[in-house]
Specification:
Length: 250
């Protein structure tokens, strides 16, 4: 019988090395999750990650501009109806610069800049560029930012899962499930990136983005916990649990 290296039989040096790596990666994945909740989670204005957040992040909210939705929502009490109507109309006309100083600037000065000024953390509406930004229809992620995020993700995450899979490859685990678990993050990585691009054009694909995230998280959680347990817990504790059917052969 060929003596194969398993996590349980690794020299302590490598156990310590792999454990350090897995713990840091585990913490990194948790932080990534928190970051997603903070950046995308609030995209629809409500806390918690929902399909709408993903749609707003990649596809945008094309029903109108941020200016319009705020003037019909939270900012409604800030100006009388006819002023709000003029602002919305101007935004819908494509926020032409020609009408800014003559018509729009005085309205923003009167009703908005008491809060929206350089001294606040809000967009400064003394400047046309800042008003123009919120008056544009929100088309979601730009091609430039998608290209940048895609290649960073593909390169970076592939390496993480190469090493996590490498270590987990030494675990005693039913072979078929082992192969599935090692392959899963790579498949979902491709699906995830693909879904960003698809969602940019077809919001329905936001579901795929959600699924991709869940896929990685599950596979990496199982791989990390299994590897750690097999390196440090006594064999009897996990052998029946994970390697049940293969027990006879070990
Ligand atoms: C009493 C202070 C106040 C006044 C006056 C006010 N705003 Fe605001 N505005 C806020 C605050 C606070 C927020 C941030 C709300 C949030 O993020 O939940 C905000 C957010 C916004 C945003 C979203 C900005 C972004 O990039 O997220 C827009 C657009 C906006 N206001 C438009 C207006 C317009 C137009 C007026 C004038 C008719 C106006 N506001 C008057 C306090 C004010």
């Amino acid at each position: 019988m060929i003596e194969t290296t398993t996590l349980a039989r690794l020299p302590t040096t490598y156990k310590v090395l792999y454990t350090g790596f897995l713990l840091v990666i585990g913490a990194g994945l948790l932080m990534a999750g928190v970051q997603i909740l903070l950046t995308h989670g609030m995209a629809d204005g409500k806390p918690g990650l929902s399909i709408n957040d993903i749609v707003y992040s990649y596809y945008g909210n094309r029903s109108g501009s941020k200016l319009e939705s705020m003037l019909n929502g939270q900012m409604k009490p800030m100006a009388p109806d006819d002023v709000r109507f003029q602002m919305i109309q101007w935004a819908r006309d494509g926020s032409p610069a020609s009408q800014w100083s003559s018509r729009m600037e005085p309205l923003f000065q009167q009703y908005c800049v008491s809060c929206h000024n350089a001294g606040s953390s809000l967009p400064d509406f003394n400047k046309f560029e800042n008003v123009e930004k919120v008056a544009k229809v929100d088309e979601g992620a730009s091609i430039a930012s998608l290209t940048r995020d895609s290649h960073i993700h593909l390169f970076g995450i592939a390496f993480i899962f190469l090493f996590v899979g490498w270590i987990f490859g030494l675990a005693q685990y039913p072979q078929r499930w082992k192969l599935i678990l090692i392959a899963t993050p790579f498949v979902f990585l491709i699906l995830d990136i693909l879904s960003w691009w698809l969602t940019k054009y077809f919001p329905i694909f936001a579901w795929l983005t959600m699924l991709g995230g869940i896929g990685y998280s599950l596979a990496s959680t199982v791989m990390i916990f299994t590897s750690l347990a097999q390196m440090w817990l006594p064999r009897e504790r996990w052998l029946g649990f994970w390697a049940g059917r293969e027990k006879a052969r070990l």
